[in-house]
Amino acid sequence: MLAALALTRQIQQAEVVKQQMFREKKKEADSVARETRKYIDEKEAEKRKKKEKVMKEKQEARRVREESEVRKAELLKTEKLRDVKMMAEVKVQQQEQQARQDEAAAIKRAQDDLQLLWLKDEECKLAEHRRREELKCLRELEKLEREWRKKELMEAQVKAEQEAVITRERRQQVEERQKARMAAAMKQKEELLRVTDHWMITEQRERSEH
Lower CB density within 10 Å: C or N end of the chain? Predict the structure, then answer.
């Protein structure tokens, strides 16, 4: 009985430890989810800023082109029209090329950011899958432990019943041996009394004959 109580106490303590581990894992998963959401928000804000920068650069390039056209119209009236026109065109081409390069770089950065977000999303999905698998394994372990505990309790009950039966049988055997010894002693005592009575009767008879 004491062994069964000790076993039950150990099982209860193990159940408390498991529940504590489950709460810690849940707390850790919630923290990872918050950090992931924060990272995604920061990346989206950075993406918006980059997009605004690209739009401003495009507007600046368009403004430069418009100003260049105005200057070209004014320079047509001068003798240096050809040189100024050529320089303006070269400058505009350079600005347009720079704008295209900046736009291409911005697009590449945006694509890289999207790729990174996709990877982070996949990592989150994988982490969620692992968490579900861990919960599944934990439930399986709890099920196995419940079955094991039930089996141990049943075995302990069977063992206790068997020991009780053995104790009763041993007690009965001891009582039977005691009864047998007492019966033998009584029989021996009766035989001794019978012999003693016979001897006394014989002795009295012999005395009376003399």
Answer: C
